[in-house]
Amino acid sequence: KRCHGDGKKTTTTRISREFGEMNPTEKDRHRFFSVVGFSFFFAYLLAFLFEGQILYGLLEHHGEEPVLYITITIAAHFAGLSLVGFLIRDISTARRFMLLGAGLIFLATLPFYFAPSSLWTVGLLAAGFISGGAVAAWGFYLKAFTPRNERLRSCADVLILSNLLMIALDLLAALWSPAGGLSLTLLCLPLGAVFIFILPAKERQPLTAAGAPEPEISVRLPLLLLCLFVFVITINSGLMYQVFNPAFAHLTLLTSWYWAVPYIAALIILRSLPMKVNRSKMLYVGMAMIMTAFIGFMLLGRQGRDYLIVDTLMLGACGIFDLFWWSILGEMLDFTKRPAAVFGIGLSANVLGVLCGDLLGMTITSINLPDAEVAVIALSVVCVTLVLLPPLNRQLVMLLKNHTYLLAYSAIPREQRAKIVHCLEPLDPLTPREEEVLQLILDGNSNRQIAARLFVSENTVKTHIRNIFSKYGTRSRAELISTLLQDRNR
Question: What CA–CA distance (Å, rounded) separates 344 from 98?
Fold first, then answer.
């Protein structure tokens, strides 16, 4: 038994955005400033702090072993990414942290103009932690100043621009001196701060067409799966830094400029593809490339042409992987009120993977493991990611569907929502408690939030939800809401 509406259909997907009242020129300008400002920050990170060639050059110049310095820096950066985001609750706090952080990082880097001392270790710990927090804080800017359908392009633009800057800095350092490269790298910090400073310091809460806040959806499981996938695949990046790079260290000039060229080329290609292209399928291409790269590393020599082949395959794959999880994190930001925490945790999995890969690579180097066995280890890592990919893709698709349908439902005026629910009669009547749970589901609450509201356990909530799905003949939240909306428009 179904009851029908008055025949008038409303557009339920017309959502007013945080920047919806801006004119197109203002939107583009804010997005541009956000991307360019963060790219300068990130270029400093890539060229110096995070396995940067300038840091390696300075350590080599002073005869310092890089192992301890690199390890503590990456560990500090991981801590900043995973922790600071929880302390940043709004864009004004994010702005203050990025601006203050730029100054503190600048000061923490100054000891590297002098002979090695304990200040080097302190500076790397401080700069690593603060830069991790600054990267996490940019999650607010990505959410506020880039429309949903442009997040992939904004992430691609940041990665492309920051890597172009890194190439220029590395090349100048190789031709000039590590100290000269450090001076130019430090210049990126005030330049990035200028662009962040001129952006608005406040954001408006996104509202639906019905005037209510957008529903928040739990991203815990998809984020956990994404982090696991990112961690496993980026172990190969750590292996690359510690095994692949030293093998071609004698090609100094070539490696200083060509290193990231395939990475940038892959990003440009992916950025230019139509949005309807299935990104998960591109991951299989990347995995095939990285497997071929390690096989090539095992079979080829150590000359310039061998480097071009292996590096093109390896870094092209890294470009595919990085843009995939950066853009997925960008989409997840719409589902949470803590974008800095989500963005930071997602990228911290990348850093943790690199750190573990570094340690694995150092171990391999210390025991002189043959190239063939290194390739076997790397291929085993790829095989694990192939197992993780299908459930990851399934969870991400379901997350996006849930959000889309909840936005459509929340766009309907509240007084009409009860009518919609009562119009579709379930196979068996709902109990009073199931009706409460259904309404909380439609308001966008997670199982944990529902349990807290009703003072029951999560297992009890899951039982009620299974009963509701059964009575409506559905299997998920998205299917349930879709069924209600479809009946409304009949």
Answer: 14
What 3-state class would DSSP assign to 213? strand
- 126 in Cβ contact with 158 (< 8 Å): no
Structure letter (DSSP) for residue 276: T
According to the model, what pLDDT value does residue 392 have?
66
- Please name every residue paired with 2 in a beta bridge, in sequence order, or none if there are none: 424
DSSP string, 278-315: -HHHHHHHHHHHHHHHHHHHHHS-SSHHHHHHHHHHHH
Structure tokens at 490: 């009949």
Amino acid at 275: M
Tell me how far apart the alpha carbons of residues 415 and 102 are, in angstroms, rounded to a whole number.
49
The answer to whether 345 and 135 are in contact (CB under 8 A) is no
Q: What is the pLDDT of residue 407?
A: 56
Q: Enumerate residues 6+ apart whose C-beta is below 8 A from 371.
A: 297, 298
Question: Using a CB cutoff of 8 Å and minimum separation of 24, what contacts does 53-61 make?
Answer: 53/170, 53/173, 53/174, 53/256, 53/259, 54/169, 54/170, 54/173, 54/178, 54/181, 54/182, 54/185, 55/112, 57/173, 57/174, 57/178, 57/181, 58/112, 58/178, 58/179, 58/182, 60/178, 61/178
Structure token digits, residue 170: 């590395």
Q: What is the pLDDT of residue 10?
A: 39
Question: Backbone phi, then psi, for 249, in 5-degree steps?
Answer: -65, -25
CB atoms within 10 A of CB 365: 15
- Over 80: is that where the pLDDT of 207 sits? no
How many CB atoms are located within 10 Å of the residue 200 CB? 16
The dihedral through the CA atoms of 322, 338, 140, 27 has a sign that is: positive
Do the Cβ atoms of 480 and 469 come closer than 8 Å? yes
Render pLDDT for 232-244 as a digit per residue (tens, 0 to 9).
Answer: 888 877 777 777 7
Contacts of 456 (CB under 8 A, 6+ apart): none
Tokens 């997602």 found at: 346
Tokens of 231: 């961690």
- Cβ neighbors of 231 (< 8 A, separation 6 or more) are 349, 350, 352, 353, 356
Phi-psi domain of 109 (left: phi exceeds 0; alpha: psi -120 through 50; beta: other): alpha
